[in-house]
Fold this protein.
Amino acid sequence: MRTVLSRCFLSALSVVLISTAVTAQSYIVNSPSGEISAVIELRDGYPIYSLLFRGTAIIGESRMGLVMGDGTDLSSGLTVLKDAKASVDRAWTQPWGEMREVKERYNELRLELASNTSSETVLVITFRVFDDGVGFRYELPDSGDFIVTDDRSEFVLMSDYRSWWIPAFENNRYEYLYTESSASDLRSVHTPLTMETPDGVFLSIHEAALTDWASMALLNMGNGILECDLVPWSDGTKVRGETPVVSPWRTISVSGDAAGLLTSTIILNLNEPSKIEDTSWIRPGRYVGIWWGMHIGKYSWGSGNKHGATTANTKMYIDFAARHGFDGVLVEGWNLGWDDNWFANGSFFQFTIPHPDFDMEEISRYGAEKGIYLIGHHETGADIDNYERQLDAAFEYYERLGVKAVKTGYVGHRTNEFEWHHGQYMVNHYRKVVEKAAEHHIMIIVHEPIKATGIRRTWPNMIAREGARGQEYNAWSGDGGNLPDHTTILPFTRMLGGPFDFTPGIFDLYFNEAGRPNNRINTTLAKQLALYVVIYSPMQMAADLPKNYEGHPAFEFIKEVPSDWEETLALHAAIGDYVTIARKERGGEDWFIGSITDEDGRTLEASLSFLDEGREYEAYIYADAPGADWKSRPYMIDIRKEKVDYSSILKLELAPGGGQAVRITPATSSPE
Ligand code: NOJ
Ligand code: CA
């Protein structure tokens, strides 16, 4: 056995013993509110931590430490050389986000550790305990090159927690439907891994500030022990580089209810402040694009009579965007390389040469005239070498043409044939692209990305990413697409990392013209609107074909809903069942509510007490009409206007697979 600990679902009693048996090498760090406590100790040379929430253990005694390529074991034989405590209480402002101001309050413990063989510091472990969770990380002091072959960090569960997860080490990266199961049924899983204890405490294990390191999957070792499983390089090593270096933060978000997870800021707080001083060129936006047409088979990426990215078609999209107040038009399939076998093989992609029927210079001139920017597209087909060879030229080209955002893509099971999308090699590639884009004042939307770990704080041009099953699966997935509960799980799992380019807003729910009898959108129309509020993205797409929006009364909501927020509130939260989010627009007075449900219809009540007292408002309501059902009557929508104020209780009648979207705006005129 690798460990001295006996940890089979520890009883609460054993934890009480830990927290009282304070020795010279045992520490307790409390959150500012006192609700969360991390107990950290060096026992017989093993660094161990456990976590308590309101006095009850939620993570039992868990090992920490690293194993190095030269055989040095930095997870045992350690002693404390120096300990230092610190406290921070401040706030900082996001250039864009779910909320303007982020409070950063934590208590910190930093332990410098020596080993059996060295009296110098060989490893530093730092804990930060916030009111919404705990983070810890490793630091390797200056000692030349290093290789990490194993990260021994454990997360020991106290009982068989209910869990929501997607599998790790599979070919489709993070693009899986979530499974809800007992923790004992986990295999190797990605983070965020979200769990609920039998006492109704919610926790989510993830990481923050994933920089120049391998990402962390979690391996179920049995007996409630989840161990960090670093995604390896193709040669089997996990992390390499030069010291001094810090690992990403291993994080555990904690909340007494599911809603608390939705407004947690620990991931952002554990990232470095912005490296971009002047962020005025980084602006959230809303876009349309030549995109959904390809996914439903109406257009092709490659040349031919179905080619979507033609000059005339792009101008039509620019006109549509300008007419309806959008900021950008995404165009995929504009460049050379799509006619070849690009899937998992991007060697033919040219990032500065358009198809002959796509007049890039004319299109960018036309867009500028109409006040619409192009959102560029770099699909790499996972050929990183081909892309990196062209990176400078590709971004110079787009900057010259006034492109303000670029969507990148990494379709393929491995990159450069052999590397996982989640290993250190790709962590560094994704970052290189974000930094290169920043040099050219370009925002980045990544598909097939590395998971979101809050890097947007440090690089605010990292504006949005995929990294889950998005809307596109409804267009072509062999399993019929995303089930109605998928979007009721995402806010508590994938979204804890940050914004998601889900691309909501499909109005033609069956897209029959494309001849896909086995695919459709598995929601009601009203739920498509509600997703604009529930699934946060600072770059929000109106994904459907323009003709499906023109003249549609529900399109009004998409035209009004912003993508940047002053404040966010979680009104209802039940993982896999329903979610209601209210957000106040940045720089305005309007509030927006999105409420969604799984396959079960339900009625929820939302108090509007967040509105200004003594002020009258008008609520524009987009609700499932009575009798609506995602399966057979998904289009039945009831659009109405009501007077509301801070004392109103809004009834949210959600159809099976349905939702409701509401815009609340201060009443301007005298009562009608
Ligand atoms: C997969 C992306 O998720 C999708 O949005 C894109 O259209 C295709 N790759 C082609 O790049
Ligand atoms: Ca994708």
In short: Residues 2-269 form a domain with the Beta-galactosidase; Chain A, domain 5 fold (CATH 2.70.98.10). The mean pLDDT is 95.
